[in-house]
Amino acid sequence: MKPIIMLRHRGLVWLLVSLFMLPVLLGLCGTVAPALGFTPTFAPGDGFAQILTDPRLLPALGLSTFTGLLATFLVLAITVMALVCVHDTRWWSWMNAAIPPVLAIPHAAMAVGLVFLLAPSGALVRLVSPALTGWERPPLDWIVPDAQGWSLIVGLVIKETPFLLLAAIAQLPALDVDASLRIGRTLGYAPARCWSRLILPRLYPRIRLTLLIILAFNLTVVDMAILLGPGNPPTLSVLLMTLVNDPLSRAAASAGALLLVAVVGLSFLLLFALEIFVSGIARRRRQSGVRGHGFSALRVLGKGVVMLILSTSLVTMLLLLVWSFTRRWRFPDAFPAQWTLSNWSTRTDVLMQPALTTLIIAMCVAALAISTAIAWLELERRGAAPRLDGIWFVPLLVPQISLLFGWQAVALWAGLDGTWWMVVYTHWLYTFPYVILILAVPWRELAPEWGHAAHTLGAGDWRVLWRVRLPMLIRPLSQAAAVAVAVSVALYLPTLLIGAGRHQTLATELVTSVGGVDRRVVAALAVLQSILPLLAFVLALMVPRWQSRRLARQSTRSLTRTAVA
């Protein structure tokens, strides 16, 4: 490679890394400075003094830790049960088909659907009232909402289990599960024992990073905590959001954000310690040689729990759709008494403007994420860029609120807060890791012989990229674009803080509207927020088929011309 070209490549490598790490480093510095008093407004120690003396801190900290850790443990347990109990059964294909649409549902829309399902006046109570309960009015002492955070735990488990399950399923082909099960059965082990002793010890390291991302999210989530969590005390993230809106409490909010980083770090250490402990127990049990038998009751329970989670996700979306077309639905009627289209036709100002803003931002973010991922992977293939898989996931492991507090302060200082491109840039920071994760493996595994053959025919590097590599990778590229759209549509906190309230997206409008706007309008907002990523995933399935048909027609025309000649 010519020196001048190598120099350009290195400059592009440093540019991409700098663009990615700049918000992370400046954001953390912008959070640390007010917390430690390195600002003209606050004296050193003011932030920690305020937050540590706040009587709401300990309850909020305990609630966040309890809900985050328990939800993550349940997500892992249910994922393991699903793999052990559903694999190689007639339910396996159904589960695989149900996961993508469930994953496409944004967190806020899922939370609103659960509220409509589980609330005192929700669909679940309506179905059994008054025949089984005798209730003519919504009960006052219903289980939702609750002060212990169980509703939030249920929401997190329902939303995050499909994510971990999909990550685990994607790793199964590399483990040759069928061969491992055959070997285990030959040695006299039941299927459950084969999984626990032969497959899961090799699978867990491959999904550890995904589990850490889920743990960090569960501990620090804001939108779902606002919609499903208790209000007194709130979770620590929600408490910090109330503090950051007060200029006099900005230092306390920054100090609390650093405490949240410490909580996430300690939770990671706890997970690593449990991993070592469980690995030691599993190693001793493997060495004992005990075969044991399958657990029939556990298999039935595992199938039931997985199907319940996926079915509940789809039911919540159906419930939102019903509410969006409802005109009158009095309690305790099980079904609406009157239907209408006016919830959509007369509220276009409330619905269409946020939807258009969300769509434009999501498309720009997806295009930017795909372009930068292709640029990085191509530089890596040419030997100009190192493999830096670890740093791409830093924004997903650091609490959003801890990073965005500082990044907002930097944007405010630079006069860039509320600008459209700053919102897109921040969305890109959280979508790029998912895009690079999806594209990295197929890009690296693409046989180089295809490029060599094109070069032999006189094609340059750019022509090989556009006419050979990208068409051959159209399926993962389409999937990555759909995921980027889904992630951008669901982002609430980056839009709220960096957008400074000037960019009304479906996520921000949905969280703001709950509790203060007509339930039918809230349902319409949630439906719109769910439709956009669903359409993106549908297009991701159709684009490769369109390309295959186009290539088939071109091949037919070429053969026809050859035959005529």
Task: Explain what the structure shows.
The chain is globular. With 565 residues, it is mostly helical. The two termini are 42 Å apart. The chain is built from 24 helices and two strands. It has two domains: 243 residues, MetI-like fold (Orthogonal Bundle), CATH 1.10.3720; 294 residues, MetI-like fold (Orthogonal Bundle), CATH 1.10.3720.10. 76% of the residues lie in helices and 1% in strands. The model has no long low-confidence stretch (mean pLDDT 86). A two-stranded antiparallel sheet has the order 1-2.
**Strand tally, please?**
2
**Could you tell me how far the N terminus lies from the C terminus, measured between alpha carbons in angstroms?**
42 Å
Strand content: under 5%
Order of helices and strands: HHHHHHHHHHHHHEEHHHHHHHHHHH
Number of domains: 2
Q: How does the helix and strand content classify structurally? A: mainly alpha
CATH architecture of the largest domain: Orthogonal Bundle
Please report the number of helical segments: 24
Mean pLDDT: 86
Shape annotation: globular
CATH class descriptor name of the largest domain = Mainly Alpha
| Biggest sheet strand line-up | 1-2
Low-pLDDT segments, ≥5 res: none
What's the helical proportion of residues?
over 70%
Report the major sheet: 2 strands, antiparallel
Element layout with pairings:
Elements: H1 3-36, H2 46-52, H3 57-86, H4 91-104, H5 107-118, H6 123-128, H7 150-175, H8 177-186, H9 191-220, H10 223-228, H11 236-244, H12 250-288, H13 296-324, E1 326-328, E2 338-339, H14 342-345, H15 348-381, H16 394-397, H17 400-413, H18 420-445, H19 449-456, H20 461-472, H21 474-490, H22 493-498, H23 506-513, H24 519-564
Antiparallel strand pairs: 1-2
Helix pairs in contact: 1-12, 1-17, 2-12, 3-7, 3-9, 3-13, 4-7, 4-13, 5-13, 5-24, 7-9, 7-13, 8-9, 9-12, 11-12, 12-17, 13-24, 15-18, 15-21, 15-24, 18-21, 19-20, 21-24, 23-24
